[in-house]
Amino acid sequence: MDSGTSSARRSRSGSPDPIASNAGTALPYATRSALHLKGLVPSGVEDFSVQEQRALEQLNMKSTNLEKYIFLSWLRTTNINLFYRLVLHNLKAIAPVIYTPTVGQACQEYSHIYPFLAPPNNVDGLYIPLPEVENIDEIIGNYRESIKEGDEPEITVITDGSRILGLGDLGMNGMGIPVGKLQLYVAAAGLNPDRCLPIVLDFGTDTDKYLEDPLYLGIRQHRPSDEAFYAAANSVIGALHRAFPNMFIQFEDFSTEHAFGLLEHWRHRALCFNDDIQGTGCVILGGFISAVEQAGIPPRDQRILFVGAGSAGVGVAKQLVDYFVVAHGIPENEARAMFWMVDSRGMITTDRGDRLAQHKVYFAREDNASTQCTTIEEAVEYVRPTALIGLSTIYKAFSEKILVRMNEINQKARPIVFPLSNPETKAECSFEEAMRCTNNRVLFASGTAFPEYTAPETGRVYVPGQGNNMYVFPAIGLGAVLCKPTCITDTMIYAVSKALAASLNAQERADGELYPRIERIREVSAELAAAFIQQAVREDLANDRMWVDLVKASDTDKLVSEVRRFMWLPAETFEQLRQCCPHTHHHPVMPHSHAEGPSKL
Ligand SMILES: O=C([O-])CC(=O)C(=O)O
Ligand SMILES: [Mg+2]
Fold first, then answer.
1. Per-residue pLDDT for 599 more than 70?
2. By CB atoms within 10 Å of each CB, which of 72, 178, 186, 355 scores lowest?
3. How much is the pTM?
4. Judging by beta carbons within 10 Å of its beta carbon (0-12, 13-18, 19+), is residue 181 exposed, middle or buried?
5. Strand runs (DSSP E) across 26-185, as ranges?
6. CB 194 less than 6 A from any atom of ligand 1
């Protein structure tokens, strides 16, 4: 390490020395001298674990989740190594703060809690205003200048903020979502934080509250026409793809029609994936496979009622149809007939009198012309569902009355209830309600995190399944970054769902859980990423020789352990931090195509 001059404290482009800024009070005296930091740090020299204890204390002093979120954002932009140590060691407690549900509130307040980042040293992603799209190459060039050499982004999460969770159009404030999702990529699957790029397309908002908010940080105009939207979005994505051809692109929280439109346009042109359509579908299918296995009736006797027919609802339902076709050999038309959908106008039928949006046509029913159901209650009586799935963003849409009926209708089988809307203020019902109304018989998964439920009769504690895409998008991204497939196919996503259902351990199965415990997420992500890579190789679409050879060797355990070796981990000790740049080191350190080997400082 060249430490003879004070400029050693600064790296290229004037950014602070990553060792000094990530070590802080852990810097030994000799290094303080060498870096000209003597007297600039308190005299105590401590381990990272002690720093972590202090950070946790400060986190716990915050009385609201939003304050915790603000504290954690500050920590992340100040000392990324400590931030990820804290996150990884307390994932169960921290995931709901950096991600759903708190991230929803953080987005609503984004312009009010923006952390005063100082570019170019401190850049948290790209903000691309509509009038600047014509200068996209300059913007990408500026980004390149702000990052360290070799830190080309390998993954981006991109939104236009038009449909943030179930909260609607938040405009530029939606940036909190790409930022939050990418933190999960790092925590859950070991993507390298310096190679993650959050992007917001700041194309205006149709929410007057933000246009009128004096602190709003986005452009103050209404959203463009569809035509102008696609022209601008495609021009940005095209430029990104030209600049970073191997970068995995995750589309996130676009309004329904645009989500489908962008995916359709790009899925065979670039390495991309829509988290709300494909990711949500994948994770729900994983939990649903487990639920169908535990329900106690033959799979083909399932009758599935969906409430909500947006991009996520239809995406999920299609994946469930494929599952019945592929895994249970049910012909597609019969599998499709196991599904009913309700939207804001009632049951979706071919003859209810309105022109159906294109994506709903596939599920339009013809069998109930005489009894057009307009409410969920009526649909429950008509369908007598074994499974009730909500992607409606309607708070408490699954009333106690409906839940009690689900229990009565399903005396032979365990009822499946999945209130998947996000965040909690949009959830169709809570875990506690579902448990109480079904005598604890429900097979449950929700989109948002609910607390555990203690049955008053027995004192037994039940853990709710969180059918949140955080179980799958990090693994899909990791698998894609490693094996570099030409594109992402539905069959690769399906392989991940199957792997998710298979990842439950004996204890989790015995406890009737539908998803693995969040504490095991890295282990599970490695298994899922390996399943993704295997499928990509089977389809002859993987372009990284090393992973192709590994799959062809047919040793799944070896493949999983190789995936684990490529996961980024924060440094545990000062010595580790010194040996490897914190932003590029993997354990054990080895050169590979996914990220360069350790860069010695
Ligand atoms: O972010 C989440 O928790 C799930 C998600 O993608 C959404 O609701 O749009
Ligand atoms: Mg989303």
1. no
2. 355
3. 0.88
4. buried
5. 126-129, 155-159
6. no
